[in-house]
Amino acid sequence: MRLLSTLLPATCALALVVDPTAGHSIDSVALSSIRRPSVFARVSSFSWLRKQSPILISLPDAAQDSDFASWLSLQSVRSFEGILANIGQDGANVAGQNVNPGVVVASPSRDHPNYFYHWVRDGAITMRALVDEYENSGNASVKELIDAYVDNVRSTQWTSNPSGQFGRGGLGEPKFEVDGKPFVGTWGRPQRDGPALRAITLISYARTLQRRGAPMDSLRYLYELIKPDLEYASKFWASPGFDLWEEQQGLHFFTAMVQFKALLLGQEIASDFSDEGAARWYHIQANGLKQFLLSFWDEERGYLIETLASPRSGLDAALLLGAIHGGSETVFPIHSDMIITTLQALVTDMRARYPINEQDSYDSNRFPTAVGIGRYPEDVYSGGDLGNSELGNPWFLCTATVAHTLYGLVEHLALSNSALIISNLTADFYLPFISPTPGMEPHYCDFSATAIWSRSAAILRFMPGSRETEQVISNIFHYADGFLKIVKKHADAEGNMSEQFDRQTGFMRGARQLTWSSESVLGAIKMRERAVEAIEKRRAYFQRF
Ligand code: NOJ
Ligand code: NOJ
C-alpha cells in the first residue's frame, strides 16, 4: 500500500489504507480477474462515454523511435530464421550433422555447454510457433517441417529410454539424441511438462489443418499421437518430477499449467473423435488440476510460487511462462491479478539482483524502467559446463517473457469495455503508471471523478476513457517495450541470441543461438502486434465521440 499513500493526497490515503488481506481470498481475486474480460465488439455499453471526454491513448510514434521499430521488424524475421536454422535435417546450423528431420536442436553449441540434443519441451514450444506461422501464411515449407516433427514424435514416443517405455513412463523423458536414440546419461528425469506441451502443439496443428479444410477423419493419425501424451498428463499430474529448468524434483506451476491446458484442449478433441470416455476422463482430471493450481498461490508472500514445498523464494520466470503456454481465460490468464502481481515481485527482485540492472528504477517521466530478467533469484547456473558453481545471469527468454506478459495485459485492457480494477494486490504494479495530476490541491482527492472506492473489496475502479485508465494502458505498453529494448541491446547485429547475457558485462553467454531465445522473442513481438491492434481499435472507437 506504500504507493497508494504516496500517490494519493493525505485525505484519500487515509481512506485507502486498509487491511491488505481484506477481500482477497483466492476465490475473490480469481473471480475478479475472471469477470473482467469483455469483448470490445459489444460497444453498446460504451454509450455512457458520450458524457466523458476520453483521453486518447498515445501509441508510440514509430517515427519517434524508428530505430526500435526497424529492429522489431528485422528481429522477428531473424528470430524466425534462427528457429529454422536449428531444425533438422537441413537447418543452416545443423545440416550434415546427423540430425533427423523434424528434430529441433536446442542450440548448435556442442560444448560449454553441450546443447546439441532434442529436448521435448524446447521442441514442442518451437513447433507451436511454426504452427502459428503456418496458420497465418499457409507456407508449404513450414508445413513440411511440422510434418517431419509429427513423424519424429511418433518414433520418439516409442523409443525406450531411461524414464521407461511407451505406456510405462517413457513419455516423461526430457531429451533425446538428435539421431533419435535415447539419451542415456544421468539427468533430471522425468520431466512431466513435455508430453503436455507436445499435445498442445499437435492439437493446435490438428485445428489449423481443420480450419484449412481437412476433414476431421483425415486427422485421426494426429489424435493417435496426441492421446498417449494426454493419458500421460492425466495420470501423472499429481506425481512429482523435475521442473522445466531440470533442477528441482517436486510439483511445479509451469508443469501443472501446461498439463491443465493440454487436458482442456484434449477433452474437446477427444470428443470430436467420438472418444467420449476419454473426453470425460480428461474433463475430470482438468478440474482436479484447476483446484490444484490454486495451491500455488502463497497468500503470505503475495505471489505465486513455482514449486510446492521448495526452500526457494518461489519467484520464477516459469510462472509467467506457465501463463503464456498454459493459461486459459478462466485459469491464470496472463492478465490475471495473480500473474501480474507475481510479475511485479519478480521484476523487483531482478532489478536489484544483477549489476547490469543498476540504474534508476524510474525514468525521467517517473515511470518504472525495464531490466534484464533471469530464471529465478537463487539461480547459480551461468551457462557453461561448470555446473552450479557461479552466479546466475539474466536470460533472453525470461526477459522476452516479461515483455510478452505485459503486452498480453495491454491487449486485454485495451479490448475491455469494463472498468480498470486495481486491488490491494496489484496497486504496487498499476499505480506507478498513473501520473499525479499537476497542480492538484493537497486535500482534493485526485481520483474522485473517476474512481469508485469500495471499502469491502479494497479496490480502485477507473472507468474506460478516464485519464487513469488510458494512461495505464499506454504506459504499460511503453514499459513492455523497455524489456524488448533490453533484448535488442544484448542480441548481436544479426539477431542471434544465446541463452544468457552476463550479469556484469551484458555480453552474451551460455549456449549460442538458443532456439528457445528466438521463439520467445518472436512470441513477444507477435503479442506486441496484437496489443497495437487492440490499442488502435480502442482509439478508433473513442474517436467516434
Ligand atoms: C543444465 C540444465 O539444463 C540447466 O537448466 C541447469 O541449470 C544446469 N544443467 C545446471 O544443473
Ligand atoms: C536448460 C533449460 O533450463 C531448459 O529449460 C531447457 O530445456 C534446456 N536448457 C535446453 O534449452
Produce the secondary structure layout:
Layout: H1 2-7, H2 10-16, H3 26-35, H4 66-85, E1 118-119, H5 120-137, H6 140-158, E2 175-176, H7 194-211, H8 220-236, E3 241-242, E4 249-250, H9 253-272, H10 276-294, E5 297-298, E6 303-304, H11 317-326, H12 337-353, H13 396-415, E7 420-423, H14 427-430, E8 459-462, H15 467-490, E9 500-501, E10 508-509, H16 515-543
Antiparallel strand pairs: 1-2, 3-4, 5-6, 7-8, 9-10
Helix pairs in contact: 4-16, 5-6, 5-7, 5-16, 7-8, 7-9, 8-9, 8-10, 9-10, 9-11, 11-12, 11-13, 13-15, 13-16, 15-16
This protein binds 1-deoxynojirimycin (2 copies).
Residues 106, 115, 119, 121-122, 244-246, 516 line the site of one 1-deoxynojirimycin.
Strand order of the largest sheet: 1-2
Strand content: under 5%
Overall mean pLDDT? 87
Question: How far apart are the first and last residues' alpha carbons, in Å?
Answer: 36 Å
What is the gyration radius calculated from CA atoms? 23 Å
Q: What characterizes the major β-sheet?
A: 2 strands, antiparallel
Task: Name some characteristics of this structure.
4% strand; binds 1-deoxynojirimycin; two-stranded antiparallel sheet; 16 helices; 545 residues; mainly alpha; two-stranded antiparallel ribbon; 47% helix
Task: Describe this protein's structure.
By secondary structure, the chain is mainly α. It contains 16 helices and ten strands. Strands 1-2 form a two-stranded antiparallel sheet. A hairpin with a 6-residue loop joins strand 3 and strand 4. The longest helix is centred in the C-terminal third of the chain and has 29 residues. The N terminus is likely disordered. It binds 1-deoxynojirimycin (2 copies).
